[in-house]
Amino acid sequence: MALGLLIAPLKPLEAKTSNFENITIELNDAADVTQTFQEVGRTEMDWLWFSLYKARLMTVTGRYQQGQYPLLLDIEYYRDIESEDLLEATKDQWQHLKFAEKDIQRWLSLLTATWPDVKQGDHLSFKVMDGQTSQFFFNHQPLEIIQDADFAEAFLAIWLSKDTSRPSLRAQLLGEKPCDC
Protein backbone atom coordinates (compact mmCIF):
# COMPACT_ATOMS: atom_id res chain seq x y z
CA MET A 1 0.00 0.00 0.00
CA ALA A 2 2.55 2.54 1.00
CA LEU A 3 6.28 2.75 1.09
CA GLY A 4 6.19 2.37 4.86
CA LEU A 5 5.26 -1.25 4.27
CA LEU A 6 8.68 -1.68 2.77
CA ILE A 7 10.18 -1.59 6.22
CA ALA A 8 7.48 -3.70 7.83
CA PRO A 9 8.59 -7.16 8.91
CA LEU A 10 7.99 -9.61 6.10
CA LYS A 11 6.74 -13.08 6.90
CA PRO A 12 7.38 -16.03 4.59
CA LEU A 13 5.12 -16.21 1.57
CA GLU A 14 3.87 -19.71 0.93
CA ALA A 15 1.92 -19.09 -2.25
CA LYS A 16 0.07 -16.26 -3.93
CA THR A 17 -3.67 -16.54 -4.08
CA SER A 18 -5.24 -16.99 -7.46
CA ASN A 19 -5.11 -14.15 -9.96
CA PHE A 20 -8.02 -11.76 -10.08
CA GLU A 21 -10.49 -12.49 -12.79
CA ASN A 22 -12.16 -9.67 -14.70
CA ILE A 23 -15.37 -10.06 -12.73
CA THR A 24 -17.86 -7.91 -10.92
CA ILE A 25 -18.02 -7.75 -7.14
CA GLU A 26 -21.17 -7.14 -5.14
CA LEU A 27 -20.90 -5.70 -1.65
CA ASN A 28 -23.90 -5.18 0.58
CA ASP A 29 -24.37 -3.10 3.67
CA ALA A 30 -27.42 -1.94 5.56
CA ALA A 31 -26.98 1.69 4.47
CA ASP A 32 -26.68 1.02 0.73
CA VAL A 33 -28.29 -1.14 -1.92
CA THR A 34 -26.11 -3.70 -3.67
CA GLN A 35 -23.72 -2.07 -6.13
CA THR A 36 -22.07 -3.91 -8.99
CA PHE A 37 -18.55 -2.79 -9.85
CA GLN A 38 -16.44 -3.29 -12.97
CA GLU A 39 -12.67 -3.18 -13.00
CA VAL A 40 -10.93 -0.02 -14.16
CA GLY A 41 -7.43 -1.36 -13.58
CA ARG A 42 -5.27 -3.49 -11.34
CA THR A 43 -1.77 -3.39 -9.97
CA GLU A 44 0.57 -5.31 -7.76
CA MET A 45 2.78 -3.79 -5.07
CA ASP A 46 6.22 -5.38 -5.04
CA TRP A 47 9.24 -4.57 -2.98
CA LEU A 48 12.51 -6.14 -4.05
CA TRP A 49 11.46 -9.72 -4.74
CA PHE A 50 8.45 -9.67 -2.38
CA SER A 51 4.87 -9.19 -3.55
CA LEU A 52 2.91 -7.39 -0.84
CA TYR A 53 -0.55 -7.08 -2.34
CA LYS A 54 -2.69 -6.81 -5.44
CA ALA A 55 -5.10 -3.90 -5.79
CA ARG A 56 -8.02 -3.26 -8.11
CA LEU A 57 -9.88 -0.04 -8.74
CA MET A 58 -13.50 -0.56 -9.67
CA THR A 59 -16.41 1.66 -10.64
CA VAL A 60 -19.97 1.05 -11.76
CA THR A 61 -19.04 1.83 -15.38
CA GLY A 62 -15.50 0.45 -15.44
CA ARG A 63 -14.14 3.97 -16.06
CA TYR A 64 -12.60 6.26 -13.45
CA GLN A 65 -13.33 9.95 -13.10
CA GLN A 66 -12.17 11.77 -9.98
CA GLY A 67 -15.08 12.71 -7.75
CA GLN A 68 -17.50 10.32 -9.45
CA TYR A 69 -19.00 7.72 -7.10
CA PRO A 70 -19.54 5.00 -6.11
CA LEU A 71 -16.17 3.35 -6.49
CA LEU A 72 -14.24 0.58 -4.84
CA LEU A 73 -10.56 -0.04 -4.15
CA ASP A 74 -10.01 -3.70 -3.32
CA ILE A 75 -6.68 -4.90 -1.91
CA GLU A 76 -5.79 -8.58 -1.59
CA TYR A 77 -2.81 -9.14 0.70
CA TYR A 78 -0.07 -11.65 -0.05
CA ARG A 79 1.49 -11.31 3.42
CA ASP A 80 0.47 -10.99 7.04
CA ILE A 81 0.65 -7.33 8.06
CA GLU A 82 -0.28 -5.89 11.44
CA SER A 83 -2.71 -2.97 11.45
CA GLU A 84 -0.07 -0.77 13.12
CA ASP A 85 2.19 -1.27 10.10
CA LEU A 86 -0.68 -0.44 7.72
CA LEU A 87 -1.37 2.72 9.72
CA GLU A 88 2.28 3.78 9.68
CA ALA A 89 2.51 3.20 5.93
CA THR A 90 -0.65 5.21 5.35
CA LYS A 91 0.66 8.04 7.52
CA ASP A 92 3.93 8.06 5.54
CA GLN A 93 2.02 8.35 2.28
CA TRP A 94 -0.20 11.17 3.53
CA GLN A 95 2.91 13.01 4.69
CA HIS A 96 4.48 12.43 1.26
CA LEU A 97 1.35 13.98 -0.27
CA LYS A 98 1.71 16.94 2.13
CA PHE A 99 -1.63 16.68 3.90
CA ALA A 100 -1.94 18.77 7.06
CA GLU A 101 -0.75 16.96 10.19
CA LYS A 102 -4.01 17.68 12.04
CA ASP A 103 -5.96 16.00 9.22
CA ILE A 104 -3.59 13.04 9.15
CA GLN A 105 -4.05 12.52 12.89
CA ARG A 106 -7.85 12.75 12.59
CA TRP A 107 -7.88 10.22 9.74
CA LEU A 108 -5.50 7.86 11.53
CA SER A 109 -7.80 7.83 14.55
CA LEU A 110 -10.64 6.74 12.26
CA LEU A 111 -8.50 3.96 10.81
CA THR A 112 -7.13 2.82 14.18
CA ALA A 113 -10.69 2.07 15.26
CA THR A 114 -11.48 0.32 11.97
CA TRP A 115 -8.59 -1.67 10.51
CA PRO A 116 -7.79 -5.21 11.58
CA ASP A 117 -4.50 -7.05 11.13
CA VAL A 118 -4.44 -8.67 7.70
CA LYS A 119 -3.32 -12.16 6.83
CA GLN A 120 -2.25 -13.65 3.52
CA GLY A 121 -5.32 -13.90 1.30
CA ASP A 122 -7.36 -11.28 3.19
CA HIS A 123 -9.14 -8.49 1.33
CA LEU A 124 -9.41 -4.96 2.67
CA SER A 125 -11.74 -3.02 0.42
CA PHE A 126 -12.61 0.67 0.45
CA LYS A 127 -15.97 1.68 -0.96
CA VAL A 128 -16.77 5.35 -1.55
CA MET A 129 -20.52 5.86 -1.76
CA ASP A 130 -20.45 9.64 -2.25
CA GLY A 131 -18.24 12.60 -1.44
CA GLN A 132 -19.13 12.40 2.26
CA THR A 133 -19.54 8.69 2.96
CA SER A 134 -17.14 5.79 2.66
CA GLN A 135 -16.72 2.38 4.23
CA PHE A 136 -14.10 -0.31 4.59
CA PHE A 137 -14.87 -3.99 4.16
CA PHE A 138 -12.76 -6.78 5.57
CA ASN A 139 -13.11 -9.97 3.55
CA HIS A 140 -16.28 -8.43 2.10
CA GLN A 141 -17.83 -7.88 5.56
CA PRO A 142 -18.73 -4.25 6.32
CA LEU A 143 -16.75 -2.28 8.88
CA GLU A 144 -17.75 1.14 10.22
CA ILE A 145 -19.08 3.81 7.88
CA ILE A 146 -16.87 6.92 7.73
CA GLN A 147 -18.63 10.28 7.47
CA ASP A 148 -15.79 12.67 6.58
CA ALA A 149 -15.88 14.92 3.54
CA ASP A 150 -12.09 14.83 3.02
CA PHE A 151 -11.21 11.29 4.06
CA ALA A 152 -12.16 9.40 0.89
CA GLU A 153 -10.21 11.67 -1.45
CA ALA A 154 -7.21 11.65 0.90
CA PHE A 155 -7.21 7.87 1.15
CA LEU A 156 -7.58 7.38 -2.60
CA ALA A 157 -4.84 9.96 -3.21
CA ILE A 158 -2.30 7.45 -1.87
CA TRP A 159 -2.75 5.55 -5.14
CA LEU A 160 -4.51 7.96 -7.50
CA SER A 161 -2.91 11.37 -6.93
CA LYS A 162 -0.56 12.64 -9.62
CA ASP A 163 1.87 13.14 -6.72
CA THR A 164 1.68 9.53 -5.53
CA SER A 165 4.97 7.91 -4.55
CA ARG A 166 4.17 5.06 -6.97
CA PRO A 167 3.18 6.54 -10.36
CA SER A 168 3.39 3.19 -12.17
CA LEU A 169 0.86 1.68 -9.75
CA ARG A 170 -1.40 4.68 -10.37
CA ALA A 171 -1.19 4.20 -14.13
CA GLN A 172 -2.11 0.52 -13.80
CA LEU A 173 -5.05 1.21 -11.46
CA LEU A 174 -6.36 3.82 -13.88
CA GLY A 175 -6.07 1.33 -16.74
CA GLU A 176 -3.45 3.42 -18.52
CA LYS A 177 -0.85 0.64 -18.36
CA PRO A 178 -1.42 -3.10 -18.26
CA CYS A 179 -0.48 -5.20 -15.27
CA ASP A 180 0.55 -8.80 -15.79
CA CYS A 181 -0.82 -9.61 -12.36
UniProtKB/TrEMBL annotation:
The keyword Isomerase applies. It comes from Shewanella vaxholmensis. Keywords: Isomerase. Residues 73-175 form the Chalcone isomerase domain. InterPro entries: Chalcone_isomerase. It comes from the Bacteria. GO terms for molecular function: isomerase activity. This is Chalcone isomerase family protein.
